[in-house]
Amino acid sequence: MRYAFDDSPLPCERTGYIYGGVRIDGMLIKEGFSSDEDGSAFLAAFGIIDMPFSAVLDTILLPLSVPMEMKYRKQCEEEKEAEDVSV
User: Fold this and answer.
1) Residue 15 contacts by C-beta under 8 Å, 6 or more apart in sequence?
2) Could you read off the pLDDT of 14-73 as tens digits, one per residue?
3) Phi first, then psi: what are they for 76, rounded to 5°?
4) Are 13 and 28 in contact, with CB atoms under 8 Å apart?
5) Number of Cα atoms under 13 Å in the Cβ half of residue 79
6) What's the chain look like in SS3?
7) Distance between CA atoms of 52 and 57, rounded to whole angstroms?
8) What's the pTM value of the predicted model, to 2 decimals?
9) Cα 59 to Cα 32: distance, rounded to the nearest angstrom
10) CA 73, CA 41: separation in Å to the nearest integer?
11) At 9, is the pLDDT very low, low, confident or very high (cuts 50, 70, 90)?
């Protein structure tokens, strides 16, 4: 389960930076309500409680997250083009 620590070396598999905290909270809520595992209700509750705070912080950090998102999207496009050329 890859949520807060996005350590994927592939740029196309990363969680987006623009409103990334809200996206992660949405994934936690979805996973919490769709899973029968122990602790999943805690994840959903945490996501619901954390979402407004994430929205505020993500808005404040928007000037930093937009350039980062553009950088990783460009890397993803270059990666896909390299795959298309090699095939």
Assistant:
1) 2, 3, 6, 23, 24
2) 677 899 899 999 988 998 888 787 778 888 999 999 999 999 999 999 999 999 889 888
3) -65, -45
4) no
5) 11
6) CCCCCCCCCCHHHCCCCCCHHHHHHHHHHHHHHHCCCCCHHHHHHHHHHHHHHHHHHHHHCHHHHHHHHHHHHHHHHHHHHHHHHHC
7) 9
8) 0.73
9) 25
10) 33
11) low
pLDDT band at 6, cuts 50/70/90?
A: low
* Residue type present at position 69: E
Residue that wins the pLDDT comparison between 2 and 37: 37
Token pair in block for residue 13: 């598999």
Structure tokens at 47: 């996501």
